[in-house]
């Protein structure tokens, strides 16, 4: 078994590089200039399908005493609604609970592929997916703010802090930068970088074990340590997966809260 | 859809106000934004005047000051 692995691992490249995130094409199989359908695409569609089907099925015949399926779906929704949406946005939070729940569950599942055997890469480790999610949050909080405050008054509310007039020239650029430039960027990069680094870390420790074994048979114990570390890091990765899904949702709710806030 | 009732008041009398998790991020964003924006403006001034970074330094310090002021005004009591 180990002998086989070594033979298999003989051509394992080490150290892993960014190239390892660009997976081969599935449809058409092994094509080199058509990347319309790769594992990333497949995982995305599986995630979307799984979420839609799961929530439809678990709530098809709602019971007063919920079944296990229904209980999990209700707990997920209840968690986001009560602990994120209502906590941060008050009564109005209930209006945003469906979107926030969808966001939370989607990111959670997309991240979770990072530690599912065979899948073992999260689509969110490509910047495109977090970027689109961040753009949705960005457009949404600006739109909600404009609707709440009435058109351009929102920007006055967002950009002009309660301060004496003579420091406003100092503060307005900071407000603009932190609200309208840093927010979408940091949302996207935080999620992307966490998933990217997580995948890279697992690759380094897995492939590093093989690399050491290939280099010298005496390194076998160290390879073993490396693989044990991989298992430990997988648990750490699970923590990061849940935390990042939560953070993204909470920050989106927080931005909405800022857009809905009245003058103080 | 959830069977649980949403809590009546987000910050009722009997329980402490919910911790605003986003607030920490906002504060950090203000600090960094202040430093970056005014540091960058200072750098441009440096470029224009021909100095070697004195205005970037001043800009960064002033920017951080502005960031702290914003945190106090926006997030403080």
TrEMBL record, chain A:
UniProt keyword list: ATP synthesis, Cell membrane, CF(0), Hydrogen ion transport, Ion transport, Membrane, Transmembrane, Transmembrane helix, Transport
InterPro entries: ATP_synth_F0_asu (IPR000568), ATP_synth_F0_asu_AS (IPR023011), ATP_synth_F0_asu_bact/mt (IPR045083), F0_ATP_A_sf (IPR035908)
An example Gene Ontology molecular-function term: proton-transporting ATP synthase activity, rotational mechanism
Coiled-coil intervals: none
Transmembrane stretches, start-end: 36-59, 96-115, 127-144, 165-185, 191-213, 225-247
Cell location: Cell membrane; Membrane
GO cellular component, one term: proton-transporting ATP synthase complex
Pfam families in the cross-refs: ATP-synt_A
UniProt membrane topology term: Multi-pass membrane protein
Top-level taxon in the UniProt lineage: Bacteria
Biological role stated in the UniProt entry: Key component of the proton channel; it plays a direct role in the translocation of protons across the membrane.
HAMAP family assigned: ATP_synth_a_bact
Family: Belongs to the ATPase A chain family.
PANTHER family: ATP SYNTHASE SUBUNIT A
Protein name: ATP synthase subunit a
UniProtKB/TrEMBL annotation, chain B:
Protein name per its UniProtKB record: Uncharacterized protein
Record's keyword terms, sorted: Membrane, Transmembrane, Transmembrane helix
Regions crossing the membrane: 27-48, 54-72
Region (Disordered): 1-21
Species of provenance: Paractinoplanes ferrugineus
């Amino acid at each position: 078994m180990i002998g086989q692995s070594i033979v298999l691992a003989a051509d394992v490249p080490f150290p892993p590089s960014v190239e390892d995130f660009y997976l081969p094409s599935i449809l058409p199989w092994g094509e080199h200039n058509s990347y319309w359908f790769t594992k990333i695409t497949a995982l995305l569609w599986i995630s979307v399908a799984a979420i839609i089907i799961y929530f439809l099925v678990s709530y098809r015949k709602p019971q007063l005493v919920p079944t296990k399926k229904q209980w999990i779906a209700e707990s997920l929704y209840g968690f986001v609604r009560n602990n994120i949406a209502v906590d941060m946005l008050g009564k109005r939070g209930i209006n945003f609970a469906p979107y926030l729940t969808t966001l939370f569950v989607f990111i959670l599942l997309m991240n979770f592929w990072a530690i599912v055997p065979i899948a073992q890469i999260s689509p969110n480790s490509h910047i495109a997916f977090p970027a689109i999610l961040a753009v949705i949050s960005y457009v949404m909080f600006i739109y909600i703010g404009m609707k709440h405050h009435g058109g351009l008054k929102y920007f006055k509310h967002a950009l002009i802090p309660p301060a004496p007039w003579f420091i406003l020239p100092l503060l307005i650029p900071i407000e603009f930068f932190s609200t309208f430039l840093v927010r979408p960027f940091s949302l996207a990069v935080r999620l992307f970088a966490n998933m990217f680094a997580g995948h890279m870390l697992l690759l380094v420790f897995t492939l590093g074990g093989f690399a050491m074994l290939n280099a010298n048979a005496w390194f076998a114990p160290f390879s073993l340590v490396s693989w044990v570390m991989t298992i430990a890091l997988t648990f750490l990765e699970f923590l990061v997966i849940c935390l990042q899904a939560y953070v993204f949702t909470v920050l989106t709710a927080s931005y909405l809260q800022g857009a809905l806030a009245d003058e103080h | 859809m959830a069977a649980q009732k949403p809590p009546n008041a987000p910050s009722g009398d009997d329980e402490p106000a919910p911790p605003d998790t986003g607030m920490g991020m906002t504060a950090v964003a203000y600090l960094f934004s202040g430093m970056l924006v005014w540091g960058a403006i200072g750098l441009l001034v440096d470029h224009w005047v021909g100095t070697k970074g004195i205005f970037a330094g001043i800009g960064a310090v002033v920017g951080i000051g502005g960031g702290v002021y914003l945190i106090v005004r926006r997030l403080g009591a």
